[in-house]
Amino acid sequence: MCLTKLNDLKYFCSIRDNDVAMLLVNRLCMIIQASDSALIKNYCHFIINLTQSGTNMSGRTYSTCKKWILQGLEFATPESRKPILLALKNIIEIGPLDVICQDMMSLLEDKGFLRTLVTQRNSELTEINLLAINCIEAFILNVEQNNITITPKLKMIIKELIYSTALSSLEKDNCNQLYYYNITCSCLRILRYLVLNKLLNEDPNSIGEICGLIQSSMFYGISGYSNLKPKLLRPALLNIPERIGPPLHSRNIQSTTKLRMKKATNKSTLNNSYEATVMNKFSSDSETSDTEIISPDRASSRVRIEAIYLLHTIIHEIPCRDMFGYWSQIIVDTSGVHTRALVTLINNEPVSKLRQLELGTLAEAIHGARTFLAYAEESDHSTFLTFFGAVSIMIRELHNALSLLLRTEKNVAVIIHALKCVTALIHATPYARLKPQLAVKLIPYCKIYISHTDPTIRVAALSVFEALSSIDKCTPEILSILNEKCKKTFIRNEVLTFTMQSVTINNHDPDVEEVDVADVNKCLYKNEECKSADYEKSCDIDICFLLQICLNNISNKMVQVPVRLQSLKLLGALINDDMQHLVFNHIELTTQHLIEASQEAEPQVALHSCRVIEKISSRCPADLSLKELVLIKLWNMIYEPIISLTQSPHTNLREVACDCLGTIKNEIFSQLSSNKSIVIITKLLGAVKDEESAVRAASLRALGMLVTLPIIEENTEFIINLIDIVCLALEDDNLGVRIKAAWALANLSDCLIKHTNNNDMEPLPLESYLKNLYRVSVKAARDNNKVKCNVLRGVGNIIHLCKDVETLIDVSEGLQALISCATTGNDMKVRWNACRSLGFIMSYAPESILPPDWRDKIFPALCDLICHSPNFKVRTNAAWALAACNFYGKYVPFLWKSIVMALDNSQHVPNFVEYPHREALVQQLCLALGHVAARTNLSDLQILWPEIKDHVQDVAIHIKHFQERVLPEKTDEFMAAKLQMKTYVEIASTSNERKIAEILSDLFELTN
């Protein structure tokens, strides 16, 4: 009776005296025996109330309570085990994991009592089985919430036990479905936790088992699909290369997905009937269990939810290549009508919330598989189905399924997810390799939502067209879709949609009088003609409908900000090489709308408008006759607004204003008045001192672009100012600023060389500036890799300039920095830029500036690179550097040996991604060999011959292949080498030298 009263208390707040509660727990554990069923039930209820009220049960009290529960499980009656299992579940949730892990291992081993309760069944699963599985789930949830890794052995024990239980529950059709639903959901959740706990890393064979379980359970309760016993799925063999390095549009999805899964799982766990009712009444206390209240349709939908959650986790946790092996079985199955794949499920799912989840999972699957979907190709002449053909069938099935869904779907949230899925599919589809009419079937169902009243749908629909505009190779089919002209009827419908939207928004206001829909329609149609006429005055019927929609959205301040921003992103995507005429044919209208938007108070709209202006300015029409005209129109309109934005209080607007100024072309800058050009330079020079690092970096980038303009080369004052600015910026605390400063230094050094070589220009006082430039550039060559890869070009240029000044500068430190960057480090761009700089220095009288032992430092380093560098572009640039020198001294035999070895090593491709660069490497090695041969002395022949005589035939094959492919003007070195060897044949003093020269002469014989 006392326990019953205790249980009737309200436990919504924590207990004040925790010690008294713990003492009571200890006493009751000693008093209550396993044979007293009534006391066991009430005491378990009391334990659950304590744990869920937040009472701190730890140390000896926790051990005593846990020991009593475990003894009760072993000796209590079957009916008493239900409340004991519920108490055990709550104890596991709050207990210390080091102790619980040991207990779970003993409970789940072959003769463990909890394992016995999970597997114990006669003909069907019971409530005892469900409660035992819930205890395992509570343990896994505790582990996941505390971010603890359990032992691989315990993972495998749990996985095998749960997998066998799930098999038993899914292969039954008409047993006690009330428990089967919950048992299946718990099993799927536990497997999901195990996958998040890196189960598949330790047991890769589990992937096929879990995928088979997903394939069976995700159609649980779908009309027309009977329960199917899960089977082991085996992945398809993919004999295709995988992209090395970070994936495209990479993002950190693991942590966010894991957190999202945790939240979703917690929500699902709270929905569990036994947790929802434990504070009020046990399921065994009532005549009707909580699960009996849930309809079978809703219960079966829970199974599908957990199956999709598990699939979503699998997609993120296993490598993309491994996941794609299961695509044909679990994502897109093209073998028949009643296939059990995710794409089929989406169009058969009766619950809208599940369709959203399934579409989100499909979008993630497409995003992960885009590397492999890019191999799709359709052919009419194939006698068998190739892998590329199979992938193309998958893509076509995806297009068909999504077009069917968009054609029939009415739920707004589902439509949004479907449009996002279409966007992911377009990004992954190689339309140029597939037969036409693929996009035409899908895009019309997306186009109808482009002026929908719901702003989220409009954003998603605009994203579809942004993806379509951003594809690498634009096909005539896609170009025709994007180039569709704007029609008056379409404009009129859009006006009507906007008006309906405003009415809908106003109707949500509680202070607005309710309006009859019929009256609204009459009013709309009455005013439609005049409203459409106003729109048509501002609309060019020759304009494509996408551009018109974007301009309307941008200029209409009543449109929601996300819609306007997405319209700006779409407008930027339309400025593509294959379709830029869509915008440039209406450049004045477009620019006018963008300028108006750039002056708005909404900073994001202004920012994105300026970004589009920047892109328009940098992407000129290919037609040179239109190029200058378009640019003049553009800059006449944007000059004043962009200049005013350099003084904006918003950092990002000042930054984008600098970016815009940096895109100005030489044709325009030369036509500007002196006042305007001075204003541009002054604004950029002033922005270098901005408080915000982003603005400083943008201004340095713009100055680095301006210094490349031919007209700027004559502006001596600007160049001198830029030297001072770059030297200061290279010592900035911000890495981004130093990166842009290094890039500006490289361009500045190029300009200095051009200026020095041009005798018609006023000479620069380089003696006053080169020392400082050399100092900061060498220091930057030891900075971050992103700084190095830009500044190394400047280091080479500055060392080259030092030979023309009277002031003596010791360049040993700079030379050593270049050699170090070329031979060490993991950034290959740094290494090949260092090679290019070394070659540039050696190409112009290196003896006049480099230390006497420069050959001893440079040649061994470059020869090692051409033979052993893992990156073929580094090898190619090292070979180019060797061919840039005109005198090799004692290193001629060594260079012959190294180049011949490099040609031999080029046959061994270290990585598939290097294969496209192999041809360029062999060509450059052949050119380098011809260059060295033309500068070989007669005395070198007998020294080099022992090193190369066994490889002459192989070298001859490379040279013949090179001559067949190279342009004739690139064979001058071969002609010089052949003439040199012919001369040696005639003047050689020994027969051995004569024979060697004759063989080498034949080596460079030109083929017709």
UniProtKB/TrEMBL annotation:
InterPro entries given in the database record: ARM-like (IPR011989), ARM-type_fold (IPR016024), Armadillo (IPR000225), DUF4042 (IPR025283), HEAT6 (IPR052107)
Cited SUPFAM superfamilies: ARM repeat
Domain DUF4042: from-to ranges: 302-478
Database matches in Pfam families: Arm, DUF4042
Signal peptide: none
Gene3D superfamilies named in the record: Leucine-rich Repeat Variant
UniProt-recorded name of the protein: HEAT repeat-containing protein 6
Species this chain originates from: Microctonus aethiopoides
